[in-house]
């Protein structure tokens, strides 16, 4: 079970993004505070000076530490004896790499929203800096923080369903069903702007989550893709739906559906893995339930919080079975794993083994390689493309 961190060991945290109007910003704040590992002390919360200061005041941040831009913030905080030790970046995709580099170059650890970058070239440039060290770059693929997703990973690693043969994963939502960006809705405007979102809006927004979930649970890589990217809402300048056939490194096959025009859907993230002797099924809207279906034995329904689950699942659990956990707790698991990795680096010790489940910039690089391969495949009428 999770325990609260010692308040004296809290990491000093800064934000890039996450203003008062940001829904993902509130999610980051709640997740970072849940286990007591962080204290928010600085940020660039909004481009508008008034909204920036308003957010700082609401979050208890001193006004002189509400900066106009991330470059100024990185320089000033690196020069302070009590400067931030880690920054969380939750800005549009095109900001992820320049903001990350600004802090990494000052030795400040980074926790960044997905996708890692707006292009594969950007991602490679970022990885070059990360590999020079010393600072870490971690990615909030938060769905891998769910206890039963970690249980599914353990079950497959133990051979509970045999060899993985087929995977179906989808992240099909409805938030872009209407052309709200054409009506000035900011949250959708940048997501459907290729200059800010990247070459594929739908894959950068929801597709990389499905891709990372598949990799995390199965332990396999996507080696080849055959993709069709579509724009289904009239007047939209970016794609909003993707169907991708997958070839996996272990010889299995898969299908990935990413969409934000699936009318009537809510969140829409789910995964099915079929092996040689059984299968697993998990749906994010019912995250406390994992179905393990054996071919020649009774089926099982596994629930979060039970004592017989793996250590990885138990360690990601905060409250007893029957009292539901959800997205914030899963997101907080990523923040807690990140805190352990960052503290271990700063204390020059080995981190707790389960903290290594935290997604890193290398996971992000694989996500960007997946997007680029899908874009190439779509341009070639669905031809199979190797994922570099």
From TrEMBL:
Residues 149-280 form the GFO/IDH/MocA-like oxidoreductase domain. SUPFAM superfamilies: Glyceraldehyde-3-phosphate dehydrogenase-like, C-terminal domain, NAD(P)-binding Rossmann-fold domains. One of its GO terms (molecular function) is nucleotide binding. Residues 12-132 form the Gfo/Idh/MocA-like oxidoreductase N-terminal domain. It comes from the Bacteria. Coiled coil: none annotated. This is Oxidoreductase.
């Amino acid at each position: 079970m999770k325990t609260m961190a010692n308040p004296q060991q809290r990491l000093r945290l800064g934000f890039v993004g996450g203003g008062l109007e940001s829904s993902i910003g509130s999610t980051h704040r709640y997740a970072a505070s849940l286990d007591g590992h962080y204290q928010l002390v600085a940020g660039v919360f909004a481009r508008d000076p008034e909204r920036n200061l308003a957010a700082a005041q609401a979050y208890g941040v001193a006004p002189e530490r509400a900066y106009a831009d991330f470059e100024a913030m990185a320089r000033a905080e690196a020069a302070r004896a009590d400067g931030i030790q880690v920054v969380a970046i939750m800005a549009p995709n095109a900001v992820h790499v320049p903001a990350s580099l600004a802090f990494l170059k000052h030795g400040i650890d980074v926790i960044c929203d997905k996708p890692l970058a707006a292009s594969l070239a950007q991602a490679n440039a970022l990885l070059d800096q990360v590999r020079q060290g010393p600072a870490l770059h971690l990615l909030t693929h938060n769905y891998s923080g769910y206890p039963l997703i970690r249980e599914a990973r353990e079950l497959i690693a133990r051979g509970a369903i045999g060899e993985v043969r087929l995977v179906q994963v989808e992240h099909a939502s409805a938030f872009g069903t209407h052309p709200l960006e054409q009506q000035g809705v900011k949250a959708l405007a940048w997501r459907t702007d290729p200059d800010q979102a990247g070459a594929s809006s739908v894959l950068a927004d929801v597709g990389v989550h499905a891709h990372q979930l598949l990799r995390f649970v199965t332990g396999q890589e996507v080696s080849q893709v055959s993709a069709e990217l579509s724009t289904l809402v009239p007047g939209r300048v970016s794609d909003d739906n993707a169907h991708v056939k997958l070839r996996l490194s272990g010889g299995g096959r898969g299908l990935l559906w990413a969409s934000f025009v699936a009318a009537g859907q809510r969140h829409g993230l789910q995964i099915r893995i079929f092996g040689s002797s059984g299968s697993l099924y998990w749906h994010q809207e019912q995250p406390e339930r994992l179905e393990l279906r054996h071919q020649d034995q009774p089926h099982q329904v596994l629930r979060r919080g039970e004592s017989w689950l793996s250590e990885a699942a138990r360690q990601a659990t905060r409250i007893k079975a029957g009292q539901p956990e959800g997205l914030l707790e899963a997101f907080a698991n990523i923040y807690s794993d990140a805190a352990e990795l960052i503290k271990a680096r700063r204390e020059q010790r080995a981190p707790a083994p389960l903290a290594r489940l935290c997604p890193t910039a290398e996971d992000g690089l694989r996500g960007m390689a997946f997007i680029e391969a899908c874009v190439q495949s779509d341009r070639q009428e669905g031809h199979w493309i190797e994922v570099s």
